[in-house]
Structure formats: C-alpha cells, structure tokens
From TrEMBL:
Protein's membrane topology: Multi-pass membrane protein
Start and end residues of each ABC3 transporter permease C-terminal domain: 279-401
Lineage: Bacteria, Pseudomonadati, Bacteroidota, Flavobacteriia, Flavobacteriales
Organism field: Fluviicola taffensis (strain DSM 16823 / NCIMB 13979 / RW262)
Protein name as catalogued: ABC3 transporter permease protein domain-containing protein
Main location: membrane
Length: 403
C-alpha cells in the first residue's frame, strides 16, 4: 500500500512536538537566503543607477563620435564635406572644433586649461544650459566673445561670476603657431576673456575645460580653415553603423573614437566592479545555503524513526527523497520570496522618496534603477543554487541512511 505524498509529508512534520533546534536552523536558512537575495537586488539596482549617472555625465558632454586627423594635430576643414556628413543616416549634428592647451591668469594665479572652440550646434547637443552652476550658456554677447568654464577650474584661480555684472574677466594666454622666442617677447597671444558661465559635467571637464566660440579660437590661434576635430552627435542605436561608414569613407586619413572608447577605462571599471560584487554576494549565498544543508540534515536525523516506519509501509527511497527535497525547496522558496519583496521594496522606496543621498552633492538622491532582466537573473541564479543545495545533501542522506 502506497502512502499519499501529502499525508507522508504531514506525518514527518508533526509526529514530534519539540523541534526547536530544527526550527531555529530552518529560520536561519530562510533569513540568510532572504538577506542575500535582497542584497543582490539592491546592489544591482544601485550599480544600474551609478552606470546611468556616469553615462549621462560623460555622454552629454562627449560627442558620440570624435573625428581626428592621423597625419597631424590639425587639418583643413575645407577638405571635408561637412554637409555630406550631416546626411549620413543616424547623424543628428556635426560640429567643427578646435582644441588647444592654454594658460589662464586671474589676479596672481595661473592655471593650465583646455580651450575648446565649438559652434552653436555643440552647445545645444551637450545641453550646456542644464549643466550650469551659475551664469549663462553664451559664447558670444553683444558681439563680444565670452566663455563658459569648468566650475572647479574657476574655483582653482579664485574666480567667481559676479551677480552685479554677470561675468568674471580672465587673461587668456594662447600659444602662437610657429612662434619664435628669439624674435618675440612672448610666444603667447594675450587677450582678456569674459567668463559668463560655470559648467558642471564630470571631474575631468570641471577641472580643465574652457568653452569658447570656434571663431574666437581661430582668431586666437591664427587658424584660417584649420580645425583639430569634428564632433558627431548620433542616435544611440546608429553609433556603430555610422562609425563603420565614416571609417570606410575616409580610410586611413582620420581616426574615429566613440564616447565609450574615449572613456573606456571608466565604463570598464564600473562594469568590473559590478561583476565582482555580484560574484562575492553569490559566494556568500552559497555559504548561507550551508544552513539549509544543516537544517535538512537535522530534520533527517530527527525523523529517522518515522522514516523507518514509512519504509515498513512500503515507501521507496525515491518517495522519501522527494519529501525532503521538496522541504528544502520550500525553505529556499520562502527565503527567495521574502528577499525579492524586501529588495524591490527598498529600491522602490529609494526611487520614490530618496532616503539615501549621494555624498558631497548637496542633497542629490542616490540613483537606483530596477530592471526586469536583473530580477530574472537573480531569481534564476538563486533558484539553481538553492536546488543544488537541496538535491545533493538529501540524495546523500537517503543513500547513506536507507537501505
């Protein structure tokens, strides 16, 4: 006579009154699995938020693709048909640019800076107006050239934009092309420049960059049609396709770099940190699963007499294995369910109410992004680990105990 499965399981569960030790170990298993599962959800969501924040800080300012000459620092812009580049599918805008290292002086303080001469299309593409600490996103005012400087760079030379006149005046020392120290008193062209805005993108930009109009940069450097780069703003889904078209079009004359390639170290470091943390948490989950093994072991010892009774009634090894295996799965399922609810709940609270703030940001909320694919990854991984943690111990105990 075969014993119905649910009756056998209930029999094993309720035949003894005192199960304090087994209960404690079982609940420790549930709590351990729940905590690690919740931590995985929270950590992955936090990394998603950080990645998006870093991507936004760099992608807003850095062009999708930067084109530079392989033959020298500058090239003649008239040799490149800008209009034909704008017609490439996926290209949003094309901007000529001049980049040069300059010296800025304010009072008795001097500092090196990277002057970038750009046109209006780049100012719009990099959303300059949304990244201003103070001032205005203008590169020209009343016919006069003006500049927008990195916030930290202006602080470094004790400059500030006065509310009274709306600007700060600096002295700009620009190196002259083919200048000879023997013939000239100074190899620099010295000009005053009004700074009308301070920008805040990322640490590198904030500490080094000065935006001016491309016409002003050409005058300062005595460039006629020469430029140092062309910036492309491209739809995200078309970046690789456009890069391939440009590389084929210009063969070996120009180099093309995407924003991701330009900041490869930053993005790869963030991705590597995410993977390492997830692996550490999964390893801790495996350690927490040993509590599940201990719980099943204690349960098996406690029910040894009941197992022998069931054997006399005709219960097979497979039948008894299924009872304890499902018991382990139920313990794991409880921990996983509690962990998912807890992790998603914490992320939801952070997204909506922002309990945790970024340090040294003036109250900016720590970014958290929940993604379905991450939840599915966590769910699949912890289910596999929990199943293995239940299957092998129970299989070993059944083989060792039952003849």
């Amino acid at each position: 006579m075969k014993i119905p499965f649910f009756i056998a399981r209930r029999y094993l569960r309720h035949t003894r009154k005192q199960r304090n030790l087994v209960n404690w170990i079982t609940w420790i298993s549930v709590v351990g699995i729940a905590v690690i599962t919740a931590a995985l959800v929270i950590i992955l969501s936090a990394f998603n938020g950080i990645e998006q924040m870093v991507s936004k800080l760099y992608s807003d300012y850095d062009p999708a693709i930067t084109m530079r000459s392989l033959e020298g620092k500058t090239f003649d812009s008239t040799t490149v048909n800008i209009e034909s580049l704008r017609k490439i599918p996926g290209v949003v805008s094309v901007s000529k640019a001049i980049e040069e290292t300059v010296i800025i002086k304010h009072g008795k303080k001097w500092v090196n800076a990277r002057m970038i001469g750009v046109d209006l299309s780049f100012v719009e593409a990099c959303k300059l107006d949304k990244h201003l600490v103070d001032g205005y996103p203008y590169l020209e005012e009343n016919g006069e050239p003006t500049g927008v400087i990195g916030a930290s760079l202006l602080d470094k030379i004790d400059g500030y934009i006065s509310e009274l006149d709306g600007h700060e005046e600096l002295m700009l020392y620009t190196p002259l092309r083919d200048a000879s120290i023997a013939r000239l008193k100074s190899p620099f062209k010295v000009s005053p420049l009004k700074i009308v805005g301070r920008m805040n993108y990322n640490k590198d930009v904030n500490m080094s960059d000065l935006l001016v109009s491309i016409q002003y940069a050409q005058i300062q450097l005595n460039y006629e049609d020469d430029i140092t780069a062309i910036y492309f703003q491209i739809k995200k889904e078309n970046i690789d396709e456009v890069k391939a078209i440009l590389s084929q079009k210009f063969e070996k004359k120009f180099q093309f770099k995407t924003a991701a390639e330009k900041n490869e170290l930053i993005f790869k470091t963030s991705e590597s940190e995410k993977k390492i943390v997830v692996l550490i948490l999964l390893f801790i989950f495996v350690l927490a699963a040993f509590n599940l093994v201990a719980s099943l072991n204690m349960l098996f010892i406690e029910k040894k007499e009941n197992i022998e009774t069931m054997e006399r009634f005709g219960a097979s090894k497979r039948f008894i294995f299924q009872i304890f295996f499902i018991e382990g799965l139920l313990i794991s399922a409880m921990g996983i369910l509690i962990g998912l609810i807890l992790g998603i709940g914490v992320c939801y609270a952070q997204i909506n109410w922002g309990f945790v703030q970024m340090p040294n940001t003036g109250g900016e909320i720590f970014p958290v992004i929940l993604r379905v694919k991450d939840i599915l990854f966590i769910l699949g991984t912890v289910i596999v680990l929990s199943t293995l943690s239940s299957y092998f111990p129970v299989r070993y105990l059944v083989r060792k105990t039952i003849r």
